[in-house]
């Protein structure tokens, strides 16, 4: 199957593994390459997109035969690839490369299994990035970024975009201290705190976030983690601190014990709660 319109810059693209290396104990950086990336509608590092992985027995993901109201359709539904949401870690239009950081958690999911057993030349599909109208990092005098290991690629991307005199704090929850990427760096006036462990550390992360409350009204709070941590953090920022919608983004990247297909609707319900109050919905 092929894309219905091969000239559409928002078409699905097939890209191939060029190289990879580990940047943390459970974080693997994979670089993909394809000439089709020359006109990819890149927005910014950290932007979400859909990664499409082939089904068992396929050498490449089967592309949709058609689209109905913007949604892809396959002639045989059994051919529909596995779809997972990831963030762009780096993009190089001249070299036609596309870099993604994968959390390694064994073979208990198609994306983690792919990253764990990755080989040069393997083919995957990618969609165009979502939320093309908005930047990841909004201008602010003070920042507070909070996330678990799944959010580290997006947080790193935002840190790299900050002005040298940016102020703020980053709070991370990682499985182990060795999961902090070797190239993790903050501007001089942005501090970072790292907690290690799992859900038993949620209360400590929330307490650290409360201590790191921005002192300026000109602030930007960004939260992305497991749903059980994201929800109380959004409550803290939106209800306790009374931050307006434009100053706080909270996205539950995943939910403990549920695959992305199972959690997709619940994630949209969470995000669309903000949309109902006037903030545009984020499409993950």
UniProtKB/TrEMBL annotation:
One of its GO terms (molecular function) is oxidoreductase activity. Residues 7-136 form the FAD-binding FR-type domain. It comes from the Bacteria. PROSITE patterns: FAD_FR. InterPro entries: FAD-bd_FR_type (IPR017927), FNR_nucleotide-bd (IPR039261), Riboflavin_synthase-like_b-brl (IPR017938), SIP_FAD-bd (IPR013113), SIP_fam (IPR039374), SIP_rossman_dom (IPR007037). Belongs to the SIP oxidoreductase family. Signal peptide: none annotated. It holds the Pfam family SIP. This is NADPH-dependent ferric siderophore reductase.
């Amino acid at each position: 199957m092929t894309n219905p319109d091969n000239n559409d810059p928002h078409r699905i693209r097939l890209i191939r593994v060029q190289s990879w290396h580990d940047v943390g104990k459970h974080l693997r950086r994979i670089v993909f390459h394809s000439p089709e990336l020359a006109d990819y509608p890149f927005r910014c590092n950290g932007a979400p997109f859909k990664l499409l992985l082939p089904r068992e027995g396929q050498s490449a993901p089967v592309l949709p035969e058609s689209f109905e109201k913007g949604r892809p359709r396959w002639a045989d539904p059994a051919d529909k690839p596995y779809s997972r949401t990831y963030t762009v870690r780096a993009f190089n239009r001249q070299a036609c490369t596309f870099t993604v950081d994968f959390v390694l958690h064994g073979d208990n999911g198609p994306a983690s299994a792919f990253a764990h057993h990755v080989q040069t030349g393997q083919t995957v599909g990618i969609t165009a990035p979502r939320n093309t109208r908005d930047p990841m990092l909004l201008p602010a005098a003070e920042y507070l970024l909070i996330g678990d290991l799944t959010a580290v690629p997006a947080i790193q991307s935002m840190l790299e975009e900050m002005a040298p005199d940016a102020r703020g704090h980053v709070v991370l929850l990682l499985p182990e201290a060795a999961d902090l990427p070797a190239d993790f760096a903050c501007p001089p006036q942005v501090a970072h705190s790292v907690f290690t462990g799992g859900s038993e550390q949620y209360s400590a992360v929330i307490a650290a976030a409360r201590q790191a409350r921005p002192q300026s009204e000109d602030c930007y709070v960004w939260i992305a983690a497991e749903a059980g941590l994201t929800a109380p953090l959004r409550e803290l920022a939106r209800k306790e601190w009374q931050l307006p919608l434009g100053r706080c983004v909270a996205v539950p990247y995943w939910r403990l014990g549920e695959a992305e297909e199972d959690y997709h609707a619940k994630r949209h319900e969470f995000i669309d709660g903000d949309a109902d109050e006037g903030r545009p919905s984020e499409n993950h």
